Amino acid sequence: MAGRSTHTFVCPECRRSIEVDDAIRETLLETGCVVCGAPVTEEDVGSAPEMG
C-alpha cells in the first residue's frame, strides 16, 4: 500500500513507544494512551523517519 505513513508514539506518562499508522494515530489523539490512558497530544505522535 503506497503512501501509508507511520508515526512514532511516545506516551508522556508511561513512556511506552510504538509505531502507529494514520488511523491509530487519530485514535490515540482522541482516546489517549492504550497502555495507561494518559491524554495524547500532537507532539506525542511524531513522524517516523522515512526509509529510503
Describe this protein's structure.
This is Small CPxCG-related zinc finger protein. The protein has one helix spanning 22-31; strands spanning 6-10, 17-21, 45-47. The chain is of the alpha+beta class. It has one domain (6-47). It has a three-stranded antiparallel sheet with strand order 2-1-3, covered by helices on one side. The longest helix is centred in the middle third of the chain and has 10 residues, at 22-31. The chain starts with 5 loop residues before the first strand and ends in a 5-residue tail after the last strand.
Short description:
It comes from Halorubrum ruber. The protein is α+β, with helices and mostly antiparallel strands and 52 residues long.
Distinctive features:
1 helix, three-stranded antiparallel sheet, single chain, alpha+beta, DUF7560, Small CPxCG-related zinc finger protein
Question: N-to-C terminal Cα separation, in Å?
Answer: 16 Å
Fraction of helical residues: 10-25%
Shape: globular
H/E topology pattern:
EEHE
Uncertain stretches: none
Q: Beta-sheet strand percentage?
A: 25-35%
Number of strands: 3
Mean pLDDT, as a whole number? 87
Our count of helices gives: 1
Largest sheet: 3 strands, antiparallel
Q: Radius of gyration over alpha carbons?
A: 11 Å
What number of domains?
Answer: 1
**Strand order across the largest sheet:** 2-1-3
Structural class: alpha+beta
**What oligomeric state do these chains adopt?**
single chain
InterPro entries: DUF7560
Protein name: Small CPxCG-related zinc finger protein
